[in-house]
Amino acid sequence: MTKRAAKRGAANRDVAYRGVSRATIRRDEARYLMNTYKRPAVVFTHGKGSYLYDDRGGKYLDFLGGIAVNSLGYSHPRIVKVVRREAGRAIHLSNLFHNQFQGLLARKLAAWSGLDRVFFTNSGTEAIEGALKIARAYARAQAANGSAPKTRILALTGSFHGRTFGSLTITYPAKYREPFMPLVPGADFVKFNDIADLEARFDSGVCALVMETIQGEGGIFPVSEAFWNRARELATERGAALIADEIQCGLGRTGRAFAYQKFKVLPDIVTIAKPIAAGLPLGAILANEVFSSALSPGMHGTTFGGGPLVCATALEVLKTIEDEKLMKNARERGAELVRGLKELTGRFDFVREVRGEGLMLGLDLSVEGTPFVEAALERGLIMNCTHDHILRFLPPLNIRSAHVKEFLSKLESVFVETPRPKSIGAESAKGAAKVATPPKWTPAESRETAMPLAAR
Ligand SMILES: Cc1ncc(COP(=O)(O)O)c(C=O)c1O
Fold first, then answer.
1. pLDDT digits (tens, 9 = 90+) for 150-205
2. Are 90 and 102 in contact (CB under 8 A)?
3. CB distance 215 to ligand 1 below 6 Å
4. Which end of the chain is more exposed for a tag (fewer CB within 10 A), N or C?
5. For the CA atoms of the chain, what is the radius of gyration?
6. Element (H, E) at 404
7. Rounded distance, CA 5 to CA 24, Å?
C-alpha cells in the first residue's frame, strides 16, 4: 500500500468512527456495557476551555469539570503539547526502572504538601487502599514483641472514599457498601465534626483516621478546625495515622494547594488523584517520613502508576496552576460565585444554603435537585446533584468572570423556568443546620464493619 493510500485509509476509519450515530452509541452501550451508570442522551465529542461540545454542535458550560478532574478545562495547549510529546517517546516504562519524571513530580508534590515522600497510583481509590496499608504496616512495625498490632480504622459519617474493598469499607452510605458485604474488618464511623464521638471511638486499637478535608459526594461539608485539631492530637497521642483524602478538594480547588492548609497542623498521609494529570489516570499517596518508613521494597507496588507520560503531564498541570495563578483565580472566582449564589438564596425559597470554598461549592435545596440538573443540561449548562438535593459545582480553576456571569444567569433561568420539584424528606427539610449532620449510623448498617460495641 502506498503511503498516500494508507493515510486515506486512516482518515476514512477516523470518519467512520466519529460518524457513529447517537442511537448506535446508546444501543451498543445498553447492550454491551455493565449496568452501572444512568446517562443522559447527550454524547459529548470534545471540549475547549470551560466548554464541552456534543455530536450535534451543542455547546455546554461545564461547571462539573469531570467531577473535579478537568481543573484546566479541556484541551489546554500546554497539556496537549506534553501529552503529544511524551506519547511519541514512552507512554509506559516499568516501575522496575527509573523514569525522568517521577522524582521531579514527587519533589513538587512534597513542596506543595509539606510531606516527604510519594507513591504513585492509578486512581483515587487505589491511593486510599495504599494509605490504609501504610497505616496498618506502620502499626504492625510499632507493635511491641508479641502484642497485637492496632488495626482499627476510623472514618466519618457522610464520607466517600472509593469503590474498592478498603475504600468502600470506609465509605459511609450503606447503599454503596451493603451489596458487597462483608467488607474489611476493623472499620468504624465517627459522627461528622463531633469531637465527643471522636474521643469515644479513638481508642488505643486505632491505626488510622481517614477524612475528606471537605466532603464532596457527601454534600460539600468542611471539617471544622476544632475537629481537625483534636483528630491531630489523638492521632499523635495514639501513634495512629491522620489521613486526609484530598482527592476531590486538593490541588488548588479551594484556592490553596491543599484544603488542609487552612489548618495549622499537617496530616501524616494525604491521598490525591482526580485533577493531578488533567484526566489521565494518576493518583498518589503522600506521607511524612515516619509513616513512609513502614514500606520497604516489595511491600507495595503497581504496574501502571507513575509512568512517564502521566507524570510529565501532572508536572505540567502543577506548573500551569502556578504560572497562571489559578489558586488565586479559584479564590476570586469562587467569591464571585458565592455572592451570586447567595443572591439566589434570597430570591428562591427552596434555596437554603451556599457551602464550600474556592471553586468547590454546593447549593443546598429543600427540593429535589435532579430536575434542575436536567433542565440545565437542556440549556447548555453542566452541573451535578449529590444527596438528591445538593447542587454541586466544580468548574475548571481557570474560569473567568464572564463564565461566572453566564453560569449565574443560566442557573437563574433554570430556577425560574423549571416547575417546582418535589420537596425532600421532612428530616432534611428542617433547615441547613439539620442537614449539616449526616444521617445517623445504625448498628444494622455497621454490623459487618464496626468493632463490637464492647470493644469501643
Ligand atoms: C474524596 C474522594 N475520595 C476518593 C474517591 C475515589 O476516587 P476514584 O474514583 O479515582 O477511585 C473520590 C471519587 O469521587 C472522591 O471524591
1. 999 999 999 999 999 999 999 999 999 999 999 999 999 999 999 999 999 999 99
2. no
3. no
4. N
5. 23
6. helix 401-417
7. 28
pTM of the model: 0.91
Side chain identity, residue 453: L
Hunting for cell 444494622 — which residue is that?
444
Q: How far apart are CA 47 and CA 148, in angstroms?
A: 54
Instruction: Determine the Cα–Cα distance for residues 293 and 139; give it in Å rounded to an integer.
Output: 11
Q: Ligand 1 centroid vs 211 CA: distance in angstroms?
A: 12
Instruction: Please give the backbone phi and psi of residue 419, each rounded to the nearest 5 degrees, phi first.
Output: -55, 140
CA–CA separation, 208 vs 133, rounded Å? 10
* pLDDT value at residue 6: 54
Would you call 208 helix, strand, or coil by DSSP? strand
Q: Is the CB of 86 under 6 A from ligand 1?
A: no
What is the grid cell recorded at 197?
Answer: 464521638
Q: Which domains does the chain have, with CATH numbers?
A: 44-75+326-424 (3.90.1150.10), 81-324+440-455 (3.40.640.10)
The 3-state DSSP class for residue 203 equals coil
